[in-house]
């Protein structure tokens, strides 16, 4: 049960918790809202393969036609819808899934090929620009949609045509002399192929995934040259024409194709591509022994990402131009400071990678980051009503980029990714393994969420329930039910926790890599127990090499921000607010009547001030002793970053505040 996409079905979430409420917003609003958008924009009917006026339009970003991702937009909606339909009946949504599946089936070409752009708009040129045109990326999402559809409907109506398409790819791509030695510019199909292999046990799907992963970045893979150079030359591409999103001509590192993955030393380029690629590598490491170089590279790239290139919210990608990683420690908070992108899909990708790493190495460092992303960079991307979204998740607003949400995007990768994630979130909470022959099981608890896990262990049914108001409260009540199976539980103790306590006391519990192992013999006597982790506000320093010199307030896994709604006097996006490390802070449980959400708000009393820059007017080069301490602020109010941009206001927001000298 390694994949959240298959294990989530064993978990039911408590409705009135934070995640339960977000899932309810998706069921009540988001699925239908996104379906309406698919219909309104032409995506819904695109697999009918008729001409659409959008196809005549000059691309917003050359050379990517505006409709290029439509296959994946539809596929991701189907996939997300199928996850929700597995746990809840929604007839209108189910009907749309059926219609879309029929349309996709009808769009398949006689040889199995299945892609809107290269069938309707540019026939005859399929597989000529793997680097830029997302053909295989779209196929990857169709595979994932088909797997979700099969799990829901228990038929192969979608899986069968998709397997035919993949069979065609298995013939076209590979190491053979008559095969194309290429791989996708935007990884995704690799992780989808591995999932397809695990579902169907078809060896050639594993081989193709492995080929795409290991061939990537081969400088001499195609007639002694790099595949992306050869395909560009073959189609007569002008080497001087550079897409606006390429950092430089060729830009192989933008695609993580500058070197074989096993030789890459730092995480580079487009961040969503990097996360999808490494997620597939982590899956391969779990499936097959012996990929030592790939394993070492995965840890190396993870560490570089987390230690040098990640925001305090779990967001990644400082660079807007290539939606990706900048230099080590280049982590400005917003446009006015020089950047910050932090795409929603990238943070979801970090969660995917972290969840996969936990399957091969139960180390809390992965779960801590997974939780950080979930409660900050990811949850902030959807409004409480589930109808508005963010693509970019900056940590500070500016006049150019206010802290606001949008209804939809031309490149609409992020909104349906929220569906997929929230649809399978139950699978991220825990991993279980039932060893029927030994009548035993173990459950690794990664996230604390009001939820119940139920699974079979032979003739026994094992149930583990969490009752908690996390992340507002740090108390988690566990109830384990099992007639005869022996169950071990491993609980993650977060790295930020100053202390923790199990009640009743469990003296034999052992800690390994941040997971506390509670053995079955204790659990048999104590099936109801409580884990308490005090959640206190804490101040996070920015790394000195970032030159940010800021303080960020966090409480448990939740990072806080200031918004003008609570601090209406602000005129400069909180740019000139100073925060002292010595202050009094008050917690307040707030109920927002409009969304029905409750959260802990924070109020800093007499710890903040407004920077006085008057002295700089005489000279921009002031000695430290001349700098004023600023005008004290009586109080400054903070809300969770995930809750930002839900209550109107001017769109002024900031996470890290300048640290008082
Ligand atoms: Zn996205």
Overview of the structural elements:
- The chain has 661 residues and is α+β, with helices and mostly antiparallel strands.
- It has 3 domains: 421 residues, Glycosyltransferase; 90 residues, Sandwich (Maltose phosphorylase, domain 3), CATH 2.60.420; 123 residues, no CATH class.
- It contains 17 helices and 20 strands.
- It has a 6-stranded antiparallel sheet, with no helix packed on it. It has a 6-stranded mixed barrel with strand order 13-14-18-17-15-20. Strands 2-3-7-10-9 form a 5-stranded mixed sheet.
- Strand 2 and strand 3 form a beta hairpin.
- The model has no long low-confidence stretch (mean pLDDT 96).
- Bound molecules: zinc ion.
- Zinc ion binds next to helix 13.
Précis, in short:
This protein has about 650 residues and is α+β, with helices and mostly antiparallel strands. About 35% of the residues lie in helices and about 20% in strands.
């Amino acid at each position: 049960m390694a994949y959240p996409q298959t294990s989530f079905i064993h978990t039911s979430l408590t409705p009135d918790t934070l995640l339960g409420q977000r899932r309810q917003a998706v069921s009540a609003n988001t699925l239908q809202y996104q379906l309406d958008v698919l219909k309104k924009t032409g995506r819904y009917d695109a697999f009918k393969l008729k001409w659409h006026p959008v196809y005549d339009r000059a691309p917003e970003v050359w050379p990517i036609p505006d409709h290029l991702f439509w296959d994946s937009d539809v596929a991701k909606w189907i996939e997300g819808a199928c996850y929700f339909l597995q746990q809840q009946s929604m007839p209108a949504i189910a009907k749309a899934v059926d219609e879309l599946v029929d349309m996709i089936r009808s769009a398949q070409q006689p040889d199995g090929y299945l892609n809107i752009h290269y069938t309707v708009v540019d026939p005859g040129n399929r597989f000529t620009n793997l680097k830029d045109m997302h053909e295989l990326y779209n196929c990857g999402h169709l595979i994932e949609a088909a797997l979700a559809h099969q799990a829901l409907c228990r038929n192969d109506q979608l899986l069968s045509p998709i397997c035919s398409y993949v069979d065609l790819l298995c013939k076209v791509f590979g190491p053979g002399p008559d095969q194309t030695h290429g791989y996708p510019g935007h990884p995704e199909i690799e992780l989808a192929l591995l999932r397809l292999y695990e579902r169907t046990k078809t060896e050639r799907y594993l081989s193709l995934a492995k080929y795409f992963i290991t061939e990537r970045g081969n400088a001499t893979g195609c007639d002694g040259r790099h595949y992306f150079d050869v395909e560009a030359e073959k189609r007569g591409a002008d080497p001087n024409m550079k897409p606006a999103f390429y950092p430089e001509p060729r830009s192989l590192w933008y695609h993580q194709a500058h070197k074989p993955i096993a030789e890459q030393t730092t995480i580079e380029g487009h961040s969503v591509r990097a996360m999808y690629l490494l997620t597939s590598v982590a899956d391969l490491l779990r499936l097959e022994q012996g990929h030592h170089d790939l394993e070492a590279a995965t840890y190396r790239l993870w560490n570089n990402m987390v230690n040098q290139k990640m925001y305090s919210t779990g967001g990644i990608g400082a660079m807007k131009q290539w939606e990706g990683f900048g230099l080590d420690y280049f982590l400005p908070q917003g446009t006015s400071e020089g950047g910050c992108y932090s795409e929603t899909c990238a943070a979801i990708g970090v969660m995917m990678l972290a969840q996969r790493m936990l399957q091969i190495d139960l180390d809390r460092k992965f779960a801590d980051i997974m939780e950080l992303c979930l409660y900050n960079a990811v949850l902030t991307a959807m409004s409480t009503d589930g109808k508005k979204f963010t693509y970019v998740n900056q940590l500070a607003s500016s006049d150019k980029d206010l802290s606001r949400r949008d209804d939809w995007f031309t490149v609409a990768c992020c909104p349906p990714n929220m569906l997929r994630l929230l649809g399978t979130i139950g699978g991220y909470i825990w991993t279980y393994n039932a060893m029927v022959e030994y009548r035993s099981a173990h459950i690794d608890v990664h996230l604390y969420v009001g939820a119940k896990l139920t699974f079979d262990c032979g003739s026994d049914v094992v149930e583990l329930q969490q009752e908690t108001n996390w992340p507002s409260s740090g108390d988690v009540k566990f109830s384990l039910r099992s007639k005869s199976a022996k169950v071990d539980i491993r609980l993650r103790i977060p790295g930020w926790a100053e202390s923790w306590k199990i009640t009743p006391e469990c003296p034999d519990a052992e800690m390994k890599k941040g997971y506390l192992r509670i053995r079955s013999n204790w659990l048999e006597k104590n099936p109801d127990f409580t884990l308490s982790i005090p959640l206190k506000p804490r101040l996070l320093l920015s790394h000195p090499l970032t030159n940010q010199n800021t303080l960020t307030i966090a409480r448990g896994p939740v990072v806080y921000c200031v918004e003008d709604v609570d601090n209406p006097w602000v005129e400069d996006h909180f740019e000139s607010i100073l925060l002292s490390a010595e202050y009094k802070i008050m917690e307040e449980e707030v109920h927002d009547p409009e969304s029905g959400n409750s959260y802990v708000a924070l109020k800093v009393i007499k710890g903040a001030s407004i920077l006085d820059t008057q002295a700089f007017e005489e000279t921009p080069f002031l000695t430290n002793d001349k700098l004023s301490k600023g005008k004290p602020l009586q109080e400054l109010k903070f809300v969770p970053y995930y809750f930002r941009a839900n209550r109107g206001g001017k769109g002024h927001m900031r996470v890290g505040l300048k640290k008082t000298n």
